[in-house]
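User: Can you recover a sequence for this backbone? Please restate the input before giving your answer.

Assistant: Of course. Working from this structure:
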């Protein structure tokens, strides 16, 4: 169940990428609505309100920005578990990757990703991409309320 706060869950283990993404989202005043987790295990603690998220308020995020390369449980396994869970499968998942390989892109979409974004090497492209993602998922898109 979604609450009235349009929260984005960022799953990223690289501190530099986290900083860049939060900076990009700040332009649309979305940083207060972004929760950051750094590994695949923490995603499920967050989503199921376990561990340090036991007292977390609110429902599911309106979108998950998910890095493919994570420690413990990688992003593909996280995606698979989200999209096969009846309680989670409607949460939009945007995969973040440095890979432009068609096989990687195809695999993510076949596994249920809602979007696939290549992390541009160019700083300004990266910032613009993240701004557009944040604006779409948090300001424009109407989330599924099941």
């Amino acid at each position: 169940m979604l609450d009235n706060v349009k929260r984005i869950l960022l799953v990223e283990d690289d501190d530099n990428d986290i900083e860049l993404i939060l900076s990009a989202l700040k332009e649309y005043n979305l940083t207060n609505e972004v929760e950051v987790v750094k590994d695949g295990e923490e995603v499920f603690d967050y989503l199921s309100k376990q561990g340090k998220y036991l007292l977390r308020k609110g429902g599911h995020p309106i979108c998950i920005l998910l890095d493919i390369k994570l420690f413990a449980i990688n992003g593909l396994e996280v995606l698979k578990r989200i999209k096969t869970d009846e309680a989670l499968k409607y949460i939009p998942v945007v995969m973040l990757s440095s890979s432009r390989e068609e096989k990687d892109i195809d695999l993510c979409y076949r596994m249920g990703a809602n979007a696939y974004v290549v992390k541009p090497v160019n700083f300004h492209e990266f910032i613009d991409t993240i701004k557009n993602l944040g604006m779409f998922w948090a300001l424009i898109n109407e989330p599924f309320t099941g």
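That completes the design. Residues 8-138 form a domain with the Rossmann fold fold (CATH 3.40.50.2300).
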